[in-house]
Write a structure and sequence with these properties.
Number of strands: 3
Distance between the termini: 17 Å
Shape: globular
Organism: Prototheca wickerhamii
GO cellular component, one term: cytoplasm
Low-confidence stretches: 127-141
Number of helices: 4
Structural class: mainly alpha
Protein name: Protein-tyrosine-phosphatase
GO molecular function: JUN kinase phosphatase activity
InterPro entries: Dual-sp_phosphatase_cat-dom (IPR000340), Prot-tyrosine_phosphatase-like (IPR029021), Tyr_Pase_dom (IPR000387), TYR_PHOSPHATASE_DUAL_dom (IPR020422)
């Protein structure tokens, strides 16, 4: 974590502990826990505003954010794609997922999360839209 200079972590799994909360190397990592199950019926849209805000605040402070779940294929991918959508109103849900997939080839959000990302992209982005103009959520690195 210190080599990657991670300052903020989003834990998208209700069963995976926050391993680095009390890091022995003195890292001060800010956590956001999101109890999201990898279920097509899970409320991704309800989780996105808090995650988008957390990531945007971290980025404004030049922080580096790790978003993880259990397998790194569905929940974390969907949340990262949602952050990209919030940062760039020109992106479609498929483009945001593909951007995450370029960095994480196993990325494969479940069908319910894909549909919710399409809804988010279609107008539910709320006040989080285009956060990059204010130094918020960046595009993929």
């Amino acid at each position: 974590m210190s080599q990657l200079r991670i300052t903020h972590v989003v834990n998208a799994s209700p069963v995976v502990p926050c391993f680095f909360r009390d890091a022995p190397d003195g890292l001060e990592i800010e956590y956001l826990s999101v109890a999201l199950f990898d279920d097509p019926e899970a409320d991704l849209l309800g989780a996105l505003p808090g995650v988008v805000d957390f990531v945007a605040r971290a980025r404004r402070r030049e922080g580096r954010v790790l978003i993880h779940c259990y397998a790194g294929q569905s929940r974390s991918v969907a949340l990262a794609a949602g952050c990209l959508l919030a940062a760039n109103s020109a992106l479609s849900a498929d483009e945001a997922i593909e951007a995450v997939r370029r960095a994480r080839p196993v990325a494969h959000p479940n069908l319910g999360f894909r549909r919710q990302l399409e809804m988010f992209a279609g107008g539910s982005r709320g006040a989080a839209g285009d956060a990059d103009e204010e130094g918020g959520v960046p595009g993929p690195a």
